[in-house]
Amino acid sequence: RPQLRFYDSGDGQSVAALVRKAAADGAVYAIGPLQKEGVEELTRTADIPIPVLALNGVSSPGKPPSNLYQFSLSPEHEAAEVAQKAWDAGHRKALVLHPDDPWGDRMARGFLQKWIALGGQVGSVETFDRNNGGRATSISSLSAGADFLFLVATAEVAREIAPQVRTSSIGDLPVFSTSHIFPG
Predict the structure, then answer these.
(1) Among 82-96, 119-133, 144-158, where is mean pLDDT lowest?
(2) Which of 7, 10, 115, 116 has the most CB atoms at less than 10 Å from its CB?
């Protein structure tokens, strides 16, 4: 059974210095940091003495250090996984409906980048305003001819949108979404 030691990277200390200290204390690998700033610091560190599994991901120019591994559950990655699942299920033309906000934009961008890279086609991409009833307009403007809908929504918003989708021209399409649609 491994022994665990905890080093607090949230108090302003250098993450690279904490990793070196953990290695000096006998650690054979490290898990963390969680904050992007700490991961960015590690990407700029030339020599990381032990393997580090960072619990976030950053994109940095150049090759990251050989002992740095990034594991991220970012919205973009999850949306890309949905694209892969839809592709694997045999779908080839997507409709995308997402909130008109930074989170919705990130999710749609992550999905679309992967979908297009796979060779998928996009029928239309529409946004909705979660705050002022713009949902019906967005749904009615989605074009038919696709074989599934990628819906970016929380569980609460999805419950409000679902009846509108079912009664629209795209009502018989399968709907794919991310874990955000599940209330747990």
Answers:
(1) 119-133
(2) 115
